[in-house]
Amino acid sequence: MTSPAPYARTSDPATAEPEVTGVPDEQGAAHTAWEGDAPGGGDRFEFLDLFGEDFVRDPYPWLDALRAEAPVHHDEATGLWLVSRHHDVRRVLSDPAVFLPDNAQHAVAPLPVAVLRTLARAGFTLPPALANNGTASHTGLRRVVNRFFNARQVAAAVPLIERCAEELLDAAQSRIDAEGHHDLFASYAQVLPCRVLMELLGIRGVTPDTLIRWSDASLELFWGRPSAERQQELACLVGEFHQWLTETVRGAGAASSPGSFVGALSRHRLPGGEPLDTATAVSACLFIFIAGQSTTGQLIATVLRRALLEPGLWPRAAREAGLAETWVEEVLRREPPVTTWRRVTARPVELAGTRLPAGAQLLLMLMGSGSDPAVFADPERMCPHRANVRHHLAFGAGRHRCPGASLARTEAAIALRAVARRLPEVRLTPDGARPPMLGLLSFRAPLEVMVEQRAPLPNRR
Predict the structure, then answer these.
(1) What is the pTM of this model?
(2) What are the φ and ψ backbone dihedral angles of 126, each rounded to 5 degrees?
(3) Taking the mean position of all CA atoms in its chain, how far away is CA 237?
(4) Contact 345, 98 (CB under 8 A)
(5) N or C: the chain end with fewer CB closer than 10 Å?
């Protein structure tokens, strides 16, 4: 999700020497310490690996330690400054003039020359459009997006979401009845938001399976740490995605009908009155198509898994008014699918007592901010009726706040309520309590929600 060439590093970030910039403090001494230095000179965050199994499986001890001891910590492996406290994360998100969004979609891992060539052959380029756009064109482009995701449109989409959920659950229920177990991620959580998005935006000429495969490949290539061989495979899929989008935007695909999202982009004019160029329209489409279904599918998977793990919640979610909605909100606070986001400083600035130079690359720990005890009492406890549950930053804040937040919330609540009603006697399989996890820099979710039937239920719909 970036134009990779200018930002592709030639060295391995895990072994490269960190760049130390001395900034004079009030006494004139150079302040270059990484904020995680422990008493006695040892760095307790030396072994922090944002892609490591222990962090992906259980990030909370690391996030708690960062928030308490190193609210702005320089991670040598990635070169990013990790910002952990709720107040500081909100400040950064709310001040796009000082903390620019320009690096929001840069590739995390170095892209080898062979991968760059594959993307270049596909014509891959993604200029600033939405999440990475700090220019004057952002407001108008966001207005186009909001037309498809505003409260009225989301309310009108409820019957569509419910219909898609029931159709997918028909198949899931048949598989569980026949085999005794089934994965609700691949067949339900992942597919539901994709089908809904395709209908809402008028996406044609591609199957849900293909769009999911392209989206997942984009996330892994640009936010993961895959091997060189895997990067090449992913680049081919991302290239296909970009080519299809380019053809669609240019009018070669059936999706560019007047009532579609692509059709609205094609009629959009930039601040100077000139028509939106193809490359920027493709960039906007790529971001919306991925964010509108991949991250929502990840949210639904986490919502289902956490509900199945919570004693007594599953049957209540089917019948108790409002519980599904508040449960979704609490999951967003504690375990959001978008765990981090990036910003870059436009000028030297002080943040939480640490002075950062211009060009400092920040990683906002959205997930950690949702467990900040300064904002949320008993943050480790799932409490769906907490009064300030919506104070989390899972959807960001400020002018770049996620425009699809209302749709994601609605889809996740409907998904939970529908499956709890249709499959009241399912539980996680023994292996389902420890599923494989998606562990990218900014995205985390279970890749399976494997359930089994507690006992046969005769005459069930």
Answers:
(1) 0.88
(2) -135, 90
(3) 19
(4) yes
(5) C
